[in-house]
Design a protein that fits this description.
With 54 residues, the chain is mostly helical. The protein contains two helices and no strands.
């Protein structure tokens, strides 16, 4: 009965859409953060240290 209510009622479908949206946003934010972390790491590693300056 719960599955039927989830897939056939308005509130159930809205709940599924909300859960799906949250999962999509979580993946997007995770990929965005990882991409910027890799980019920052490349920038840090590309700078050559100058003698006597840290």
């Amino acid at each position: 009965m719960a599955w039927e209510l989830l897939f056939t009622s308005d509130i159930g479908i809205f709940s599924l859409i909300t859960i799906g949206f949250i999962l999509v946003m979580a993946v997007y934010i995770w990929r965005y953060a990882m991409q910027h972390a890799r980019q920052e790491e490349k920038e840090i590693n590309s700078h050559k240290p100058v003698a006597g300056v840290h």
